[in-house]
């Protein structure tokens, strides 16, 4: 009986140790789509991509793997700023797809990307959205100054490109400082969308492509918000990648006809 009790305690301790190890490696505000299981010996590349690319790149991943059976793709989604910091910290990333040029420029300045692999592959636009059942009379950004508008969903402008575009647009409209006390900062564009879908904010700023992925009947697009900086998406191979050939194939797929058709389907403007 004593021997059985000792064995039970050893198994319980091992189970707890495994559970703790699993929790230790989790990264906040990051969505990971693992590589599709493939044949033994298949190469696996990790693609870190802006949160706004979630649906499009998930589709691209499966099409790419189908046409390149020797390569599997592990997708890592988060805000471009957080992904850039992960790469700077030595995360094992092969390809980076950013929602703005600024984050990619920072990596280029540190020689962390293969410069001749860098390409702009898509464009997007900034839109103002409200909950579908909103009773507020919001027809444009100037209406956000109305005292009845209490909370605005905005990406954190220091790490989230959509937040930086929002800050630029509202500053150019002379509204940023006036509206700043109403802002609820989000860690990526998908979180802004969720705030609006749930009615937790009165309005929010997202990309057109994200508005198209909202749950049916939850949000309304009020207007496209003009921004002096084009919303462009660059992609590049990371310098430390051990799978540069496979990574370049993925970029070629994204920038090729099939990848561009998928991006268009999800509301992005093609660069081809």
Characterization of the model:
Helices cover 39% and strands 23% of the residues. It contains ten helices and twelve strands. The chain has a seven-stranded mixed beta sheet with strand order 1-3-2-4-11-5-12. A five-stranded mixed beta sheet has the order 8-7-9-6-10, with helices on both faces. The longest helix is centred in the N-terminal third of the chain and has 23 residues, at 2-24. The protein is elongated and about 60 Å long.
Defining traits:
39% helix, D-Maltodextrin-Binding Protein, domain 2, 12 strands, disordered N terminus, 5-stranded mixed beta sheet, elongated, alpha/beta, 7-stranded mixed beta sheet, 2 domains, 272 residues, 10 helices
CATH topology of the largest domain: D-Maltodextrin-Binding Protein, domain 2
Number of strands: 12
Widest sheet: strand order? 1-3-2-4-11-5-12
Number of domains: 2
Backbone shape: elongated
CATH class of the largest domain: Alpha Beta
> Secondary-structure element order, as H and E?
HEEHEHEHEEEHHEHEHEEHHE
CATH superfamily of the largest domain, called what?
Answer: Periplasmic binding protein-like II
Number of contiguous helices = 10
What is the averaged pLDDT score?
Answer: 89
The end-to-end distance, rounded to whole angstroms, is: 72 Å
Share in helix: 25-40%
Tell me the strand percentage band. 15-25%
Structural class: alpha/beta
User: What Rg is obtained from the alpha carbons, in whole angstroms?
Assistant: 21 Å
Largest sheet: 7 strands, mixed
Protein name: Molybdenum ABC transporter, periplasmic molybdenum-binding protein ModA
Keywords: Metal-binding, Molybdenum, Signal
Pfam family, one: SBP_bac_11
Organism: Methanosarcina barkeri str. Wiesmoor
